C-alpha cells in the first residue's frame, strides 16, 4: 500500500488557506503569485476608457434652455419619444446659435423625470476660442459612450455589451457602423429585453470625421429595422450638405422625420422672458455697486418691448448677444463710477508711483 507524505514547509503554507489561521511568516523559497481577474471587469474597464461622460447631458458643461423657454419644442420632442409609432429617426436642423444644444439637453433632462424612459446622449462639441475646454469632436468616443450609458440605464443589458467586447476586443478600432452593431444593436437583440430608448446625438456637423457621420447615418436603416422600436435617434445639426445628402437617400428618408428649427423656436414670448429675466438678474447682481441707480430701468417690460419693436431681438442669438452687451455696459459703468468715487485715492497712488 502506497503512502504520501507532506513536507513541513508544505504543511505550513497550507495553513495559510485554512479559515481563521494565525499569521505565518515564511522565509526563503521562490513563490509565484497567480491573480485571477474577471474578464467582465476587464471588458468594463476597457469600455470606460473609450467613453467621454463630459460629452453627455449629465455633464454640467452642456448648456440648458433658459427657464420657462423652448417649452413647446421640448414638449414636441417628448411626444415623439413617447409615441411607439413615431419614425425611428428625428432630425432637427438649424443655423448656428439657434439653440440646438440647449434644446437637446433640456429634452434629455425632461425625459429623465418620466417613468420607464431611457435616454442616452452624446454632444459633439468644439471649445470656444476663449475657453480652456476639452473638445469631443472625435467620433471614436461616440458609440462607446452611448453603449455605456444604455448599459447603466437598462437593467440586464450590461453583461451582453461586455460579452460583445470580450468576443471582439478590437471593436474600438473598427468603423463606427460596426461599433453600432457590436456594442449596441447585437447586445439589445441578444438580451431579449423589452424597453424603449431614445439616443440624442447633437452637433453632427461638428465632428472632425465627416465620413464617419455619413457611414453612421447610412447604417441606420438596416440596424434600426431589427430592434423593434427599442432604439431610436434624435439628431441635431446644422443643415450641412453631407448630412442633407444622407437624409436624401430613400432608405434613411423613409424612416426619418426632418424639422427645421428656424420655424419652431424663435417665439416672441420666449425671447421676452429671456430678456426680462436677464435684465432683472443684472439689477440683482449690481444693485450694491456705487453709482448705480437701483431704479434702472424703471420699467423693464417697456425696455424689452422697445428692443423687440426695433427688431434688435429678432431671435434667441440676438437676445443672448444683447444680454451680454448689457452686462458689459453695466460692468464698465460700475468701473468708471468706482474710479471716480476714489479719485483722490487714485491721485495719491499715482503720486507714489511717480516718485
Query: What would you call the structural class?
Result: alpha/beta
Q: Gap between N and C termini, in Å? A: 110 Å
For this structure, what is the CATH homologous superfamily of the largest domain?
P-loop containing nucleotide triphosphate hydrolases
- If classified by CATH, what would the architecture of the largest domain be? 3-Layer(aba) Sandwich
The overall pLDDT average reads 78
Query: What count of helical segments does DSSP give?
Result: 14
Count of DSSP E strands?
5
Rg calculated over all Cα atoms: 30 Å
Output the strand order for the largest sheet: 2-3-4-1-5
What count of domains describes the coordinates?
2
Principal-axis shape equals globular
The CATH class of the largest domain is identified as: Alpha Beta
Described by strand count, sense and barrel closure, the largest sheet is: 5 strands, parallel
- Please provide the ordered H/E string of secondary-structure elements: HHHEHEHHHEHEHHEHHHH
Q: Helix share of residues?
A: 40-55%
Low-confidence spans: pLDDT under 50, at least 5 residues?
Answer: 1-21, 31-37, 129-135
Descriptive overview:
The protein has 355 residues and is α/β, with parallel strands linked by helices. It folds into two domains: 44-265, Rossmann fold; 268-354. It is built from 14 helices and five strands. The chain has helices spanning 8-15, 39-49, 71-82, 100-112, 142-153, 158-167, 176-191, 210-224, 241-248, 250-253, 268-286, 300-309, 316-341, 343-354, and strands at 89-93, 118-123, 197-202, 231-237, 256-260. It has a five-stranded parallel sheet, sandwiched between helices. α8 (210-224) links the parallel β3 (197-202) and β4 (231-237). The longest helix is centred in the C-terminal third of the chain and has 26 residues, at 316-341. 30% of the residues are buried. The model is unreliable at 1-21, 31-37 and 129-135 (pLDDT under 50).
Amino acid at each position: 500500500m502506497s503512502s504520501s507524505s507532506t513536507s513541513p514547509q508544505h504543511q505550513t503554507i497550507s495553513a495559510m488557506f485554512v479559515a481563521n489561521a494565525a499569521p505565518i511568516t515564511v522565509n526563503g523559497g521562490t513563490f509565484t503569485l497567480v491573480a485571477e481577474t474577471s474578464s467582465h471587469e476587464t471588458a468594463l474597464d476597457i469600455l470606460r476608457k473609450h467613453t467621454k461622460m463630459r460629452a453627455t447631458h449629465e455633464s454640467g458643461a452642456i448648456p440648458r434652455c433658459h427657464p420657462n423657454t423652448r417649452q413647446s419644442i421640448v414638449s414636441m420632442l417628448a411626444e415623439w419619444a413617447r409615441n411607439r409609432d413615431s419614425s425611428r429617426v428625428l432630425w432637427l436642423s438649424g443655423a448656428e446659435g439657434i439653440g440646438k444644444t440647449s434644446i437637446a439637453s433640456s429634452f434629455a433632462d425632461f425625459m429623465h423625470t418620466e417613468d420607464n424612459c431611457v435616454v442616452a446622449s452624446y454632444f459633439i462639441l468644439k471649445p470656444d476660442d476663449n475657453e480652456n475646454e476639452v473638445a469631443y469632436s472625435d467620433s471614436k468616443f461616440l458609440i462607446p459612450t452611448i453603449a455605456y450609458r444604455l448599459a447603466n440605464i437598462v437593467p440586464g443589458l450590461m453583461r451582453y455589451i461586455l460579452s460583445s467586447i470580450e468576443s471582439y476586443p478590437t471593436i474600438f478600432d473598427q468603423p463606427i457602423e460596426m461599433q453600432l452593431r457590436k456594442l449596441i444593436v447585437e447586445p439589445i437583440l441578444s438580451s431579449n429585453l423589452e424597453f424603449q430608448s431614445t439616443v440624442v446625438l447633437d452637433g453632427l456637423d461638428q465632428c472632425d470625421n465627416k465620413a464617419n457621420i455619413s457611414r453612421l447615418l447610412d447604417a441606420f436603416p438596416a440596424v434600426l429595422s431589427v430592434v423593434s422600436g427599442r432604439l431610436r435617434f434624435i439628431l441635431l445639426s446644422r443643415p450641412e450638405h453631407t448630412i442633407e445628402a444622407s437624409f436624401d437617400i430613400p432608405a434613411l428618408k423613409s424612416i426619418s422625420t426632418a424639422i427645421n428649427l428656424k420655424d419652431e423656436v424663435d417665439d416672441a414670448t420666449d425671447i421676452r422672458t429671456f430678456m426680462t429675466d436677464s435684465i432683472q438678474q443684472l439689477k440683482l447682481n449690481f444693485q450694491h455697486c456705487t453709482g448705480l441707480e437701483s431704479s434702472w430701468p424703471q420699467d423693464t417690460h417697456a425696455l424689452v418691448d422697445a428692443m423687440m419693436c426695433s427688431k434688435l431681438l429678432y431671435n434667441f442669438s440676438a437676445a443672448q448677444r444683447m444680454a451680454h452687451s448689457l452686462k458689459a455696459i453695466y460692468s464698465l459703468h460700475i468701473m468708471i463710477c468706482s474710479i471716480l468715487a476714489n479719485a483722490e485715492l487714485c491721485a495719491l497712488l499715482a503720486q507714489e508711483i511717480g516718485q
